[in-house]
Write a structure and sequence with these properties.
The complex is a heterotetramer. Chain A is of the alpha/beta class. Chain A has two domains: about 200 residues, Response regulator (Rossmann fold, 3-Layer(aba) Sandwich); about 130 residues, Rossmann fold (3-Layer(aba) Sandwich), CATH 3.40.50.2300. Chain A is about 45% helix and about 15% strand. In chain A, helix 8 packs across helix 9. In chain A, about 60% of the residues are buried. By secondary structure, chain C is mainly alpha-helical. Chain C has a two-stranded antiparallel ribbon. The termini of chain C are far apart. Chain C has one domain. The chains are: A alpha/beta, B alpha/beta, C mainly alpha, D mainly alpha. Chains B and D meet through helix 2, helix 3, helix 4 and helix 5 of B and helix 1, helix 8, helix 9, helix 10 and helix 11 of D.
Amino acid sequence: MFSYKNLAIPLVGLAAASLMSLPAQAENGPGVSDKEVLICSYQPMTGKVSSYFRMGKGADAWFKHVNETGGVNGRMINYKMVDDKYEPPRTKNIVKRFVERDKCFAIVAPLGSAPTVAVIDYIVDNKVPLIGAGTGAAKNVFYKSRYVFPLYPPYDLEGTELVRFAAEVFGAKKIAVLYQNDASGKTHLAGIEVGLKKYGVEMVVSEGYEPKEVDVSSQVINMKASGADAVICSCAPEPAAKFYTERKKLGWDVPVVNVFFGKSPKVPELAGADAVDGVYFATIFREWDDPNPQIQEAKGILAKYYPEESPDAVHLWGFTGAQVFTEALKRMGSGDITRDALLDTLEGIDQWKGSVVPVVNIGEVGPDDEAVKHLLVPGMSYVQYKDGKFNPFAPPWMK
Amino acid sequence: MASHLKCEEITVRFGGVVACDGVSLDVEEGKIVGLIGPNGAGKTTLFNVLSRFQEADAGEVYLRGQPVNKNSTSQMVNLGMARTFQNINLFAEQTTLDNILIGAHHLCAPPLQSMLWMPQARAVERELTDRAVEIAEMLNLESELDNLAKNLPYGLQKRVELARALAAKPEIILLDEPVAGCNEEETEELQNIIARLNRELGITVLLVEHDMSMVMSICDYLYVINFGANLAQGEPADIQTNRDVITAYLGEEV
Amino acid sequence: MLGQQILSGLATGSVYALTAIAVVVVFRNTRTINLAQGDFGMIAAFLGILFIKEFDLNYYVMLPLVVLCSMALGVLVERIVMRPIADSDWLTLFTATLGVYYILHGAAGWIWGRDTKAFPVTFDAEPVDIFGALISQGHLINMGWAAAIGIVLFFFFKYTKQGIAMRAVTDDPETALLMGIPVRFIVLLTWGMAGFLAAFAGVLLAPIVYVSPEMMDEVLIKGYVAAVFGGLYSIPGAIIGALMIGVAENLAGGYLGSHFKTATAFVMIVVLLTFRPQGLFGIQKRREI
Amino acid sequence: MEQRTDADIQDQSPQPTKWDRSAIVRLKARFERQNWAGVLFLLACAVAFPMLPGVEGWQAYTVALVIIYIIAAQGISVLVGFTGLVSVGHGGFLAIGAYTSALLTKYFETDIIIGLISGGLMAGFIGFLLGLIFLRLSGAFMAIGTLGFAFFVGTVVNNVPLFEGREGISLPSNKVMFWEIGDIGFYYVSLTVLALVTLFSYCMVRSSVGRAFMALRDSEKAAEASGVNRVLYRTIAFSISAFITGMAGVLNGHIVNYISSEVYGDIWYSVDILVAVVVGGSAVLMGPIIGGIFVVMLPFMLEELADFAFILKGVVLILVLIFAPAGIAEVLGRPIRNMRARLLRQAGYGGREPAPAETTSVAAAPSQTEKP
C-alpha cells in the first residue's frame, strides 16, 4: 500500500548528502543539502476552487526559472506541489508526509484558508516555516508564532479600509455589500461592520452568494432596490464579473469598490470592458502591464513555463512567496542553512524591492506576537479600471 | 364449529372498477374452504382484503370474531394467519432455509437482542432452525435447504412458499392458487400435503384455485364469486350441479 | 419586486427544465439517473467556444454542430459504458454515470484548463421591460428556446414513429420488444436526445454562468430535483417542476436571504416526497399482489 | 465470539438436534471458522502495522483515513446492501457526528470516546427521523430525498452561528480519558471502532434482523406477509446506518482537529462513500473494506496527475462496474465460494445451478415499470 521507494529516495538522498558534506561539519536543516533545498506546498489542483491553483503555478514558474539560471548559491530548489483538492483531511495527510517523510525545509506559497487552518497547528508544532500561504483568514494571519509568514493582510482589515474608501472617495452614506458566504466573505463583513462605526456609514443591505454560485442577478436586484449610494463588492472574479454585467443591465450607475481577491483581468474579460469601466479595485500587487522590470520578468517567466496561462493576480501571490523565499536563501549564503537561520534572515528583509510587490518589509515577531507583523505584503493600494486597463489610483489619505 | 375467518359485505373499488361488491364469506375452523370463480371475479382482491394487503372501501373482516380492519399487514401473522401468493414471491437471493426462517419472523427474539446475539436470541434461533428443517423435511425440501430460492424449479418454489407460510405456526392459512402451473404429479403431491396439514396440524385452509378436480376432491366447502359478488356456496357436490355456477363458467368460456 | 423575482425565477427555471427533461427521458427509458447530463452540456459549451473562436464560425452554424457533437457524445456513452451493464440494478447504472461524469470533468479540465472562460456570444443588449419587471435578453432568449424545444418534443412524442416507439418502451419495454420495436435503437436514441438537450442547456447557460468544468454542477442537481418533483416519468411534470423550483428559489433568495436559495429546492423536494412519495405528477400504482 | 456463543447454547441443549447432525452444518461451521481465521489474520496485521520498523505517524494517519472511510462505507452498506435503499446523503450523518463531537469537545472538553458515542447516537436519532420521513420512498426518489437531507445539513452548518460556518472549529489534540493520543493512538482508536462495527454488522446480518432487512429488500410484500414490520425495520436500518456513519464523522473531525462547513457542506463525501460500497461490493462485509481503500488510496496514488486523475478514476470506476458488477469483493471471493460450493455438493447439499430463464419466475430485479 505504501511505496517505501518514495520513502527511500529522500532518505538515501539525505544520507548521501550528509556523507558528502561531512568535512564541513554539516548542520544543514531538514530537506537541505549542498545541492538542493526541498520545499513543499499543497494546492487545489482539482476540485471546486481549482482556478486558484494559479498561485502554485506562479511559484513553480519562478522556482523553475531559478533552477534554470543555476539555482541559489549552488543549490537547486526542489519545489514539490501536491493536490489536496481543498479538503482539509487530505491537506493534513499531505503536510504530514511533507514533514515526516520528505523532511521538507519549509512550506512555501500553499493555498487555501480552510486547509491552512487545519494544518497550521501541526506545521508550527513541528517548527516548519510557513511562508506566503494564500489565506486571509484571521485565524492564520493572527496566529501567534514566529514560523508563520502570512502573504497578505487579513480580510477584516481590508473590509474596514474599503468602508473608508467608500466614505471618503465616494462620499457614500448608505452602502450595499455583496459578499461570498464563506470564511473570507464573513471576515470581510466583520471588518466592514467596524468600518461603518468608524466612518459613520450605514449599510442598507448585505447580500451573500454561495461560493460556487455565479448567477447573482437576484442579489443585484435587491441591492438596487435598497437605494444604496455605493457598493462594496466582496466577490471572487467570476461573480464579480456577473455583478458588473447585471449592474449595467439594470442601468444602475453606482460607484463600486472591489476587494483585492476579486481583482483580476478575468473580470473585464468576462463581463465586458464597458461594464467594469470606472470601478475601483483594491490591490496588493502591481499590474501585469506595469513597466516595472520585476513584473515584466515575471510575465516572461510565466509565459515560458506555463504558456497556456493568462496572467492573473493569483499568479503574483505565488511569485511573491517564492521570490521572498529565494531572496532569503540567497542571503543565507552557500554555507549550512537551518530553519532558524531562515526565520532570522526573513525577518531581516527590509525595504527590499526586488520582487513583484513594490516593497517587502518583514517585521520581527516575538514569542507572544501575532504573525501579522510577518506580512509579506502589508500595504494595500487601489486601481481604477478605465479605458481597458487598470490605472493606479491614490485615495486622499495616501497622497 | 366456530367461525375462524369471516368477512361481511366487502366492497373494493379501483377507480371506476368495482373489484368486490359486497362479498361475504365465513370459513369454519378446521375446514378446507375453497374460493372459486371465473377470471377477474375478484378472488385475489378479496384474498388481499382478508390478509390486510388491500384496504376495503366498505365491509368488515373478523378473525375468530374479532374485527381486524385496523391491523397492519405484518400483524396478521401474529394473529395466526399466513398466506401464499399467486405469483411466487420468494426472497430470490436467499437460501431455502432463510426463506423458511423468515416465515417464523414473528417468533424471533426482539430486534436488539437478535442483533447483539444475546444467548436467549441464539437459542430461539436454533429452535426455529430446527423447526424449519422439520418443515422442509415434511415438504421434501431438505436437500434444497442451502440452495438459493431463485435457482429452484417452479414446483419447488411453490413448496418453499408453502413452507414459509407454515413456519409462522399459522392457525389459518390462505393459499392463492397453490397448484397453478404445476404438473399432475406436483399437483397431487401438494394436494396431499394440504390435506395433511389440515388433518394432522389442524390448520384451517382457505384456498383460491382454478384446478376444479383438485378443489372438488380436497375442499369441505366452497364459495363461488362472480363479478365481485357472491354467486353460490355449499358442499362441492352441490356446487358441481349449481346452474348459476355452470352458466358463469360456461358463459365465460363461450 | 415580486414580479421581477418571479420573472427571473422563470428564466432560471427554463434552464433547469432542459436538464430536467433530459433526466426524465433517460430515466424512464433506461432506469438511469444520468449524472453526466450536466457535463454533456459543459462539453457542449466548451465546444461552442472552440468553434466560434478557433474556427471562426457564426453562432447559428456553431449551434447545430455543437448539437450534433453532443448527440454523438450521448450515443457514445450509451454504446461504450451503459450497454454492457444495461441489465444491472439502478445503483450500478447511477454509479456508471458518475464514472462518466469524472471522465468528462477531467477531460475538460485537462484539455481546456480550469480557468473560467467567457462565452464569446452574449445577448447583453438593453433588458426588456415586461409589466415593470426587467429581464435580460439572454434570459428571454433562453426561455424562448426552452419553450420551442418543449413544443418540438411534444410533437416528437405525439406524432413521429420514433417518438411513439419511445413512449411504448417507457410504458412496457418487454411488450415493446415483442411488438417488434427495436428497443436497443430506442435506447440509443434516448441518449442521443439527452445529448441534444444538454447541448442547448450548455450553450444557453454559458453566457450567464461562464464556461468552466464546474459550470453545470448546480444546474444538474436542480434539474434532477425538478425531474423528481414532477414525478420522474412525466415531461410536463419536469417542466412545471423546474419552473416552480426556479421561482421558489428566487423568491427565497429575495425575501429570506440568499443563503437559503440553494437549500430551497431541497426543502421543497423533501416536503413534497414526505407527503407525495411519487412526486407531483407521478402515478401511485396500486400494489400488485 | 461466535464459537463461544455456540458453545454456550450447546451446553443448554444436551441433545444434539436434527439440524446439528446434518453434514451441512458441520461444513458450514468449518467455513465459518475459516472466515474468522481470515478476519483475525487481517486484524492482527492491522494491529501490528504501526509497530513495523520504518512506519511513521503519517503512514498511520493515512491508514486511519482509509479506516474512517471504511467505517462510513460499512454504515452505508447496511442500508444499500441489506435493505436495498440507496442514500446519497450519508455525508449529512458524517457531518452530524463530526459537529456533535466537535461542539462537545469545544465546550465541555470531552474526550474522543464520549464524542464517538454521542456523535453516533445523535446521527442515529436523526437517521431514525429520516427513516420515518422517507418511509415510502425507494430508488431514485430515495436518492434525491437523502441528497436533499445532505444539502439541508450543509445549509444549517453553514448558516447557523453555533457551527461557525466555513471558518470552522479548531479542536484541541485528541484525548482518550485525559491521555493525549498521537497519530498511532488515533489509528488504534479508529481500528477499534472499525473492528466493533464490523463485528456488529456481522452479527446483525446473521440474525433475524439481517434476515428481515434482506426480506424487505427482495420482496416487500412477502416480507410483510411473513410478519416483518416494514416501518420498524426500515427505521432500524436507517438508524444503525446513520449511527455507524456518524461515528465515522466523529473520527473524521478529530483526525484533522478541525471541522468546517467547507468540508461537510459538500455532497462529495456522500458520493464517495456510496461509490466505496458500489465498488467494493455491498452485502459483503469485505466490500466496504476494499471500497474504502479504493476511494481513499486511488486519489493519493494519482494525486500528482491532477485532472488526468479524474479521467483515470472514472475509467477505473466504469471498468469495475462492467467487469465486477457485484463489487470487487465478490470477484475476489469467488474462488473460495466455488470451493465451498464443491464441498457442499460432495456432501449432497446445494449446488443447484441457476435454472433456465423461463423457470425462474422469481424476478430478482425490480421491473422497470415499478413505481414507488
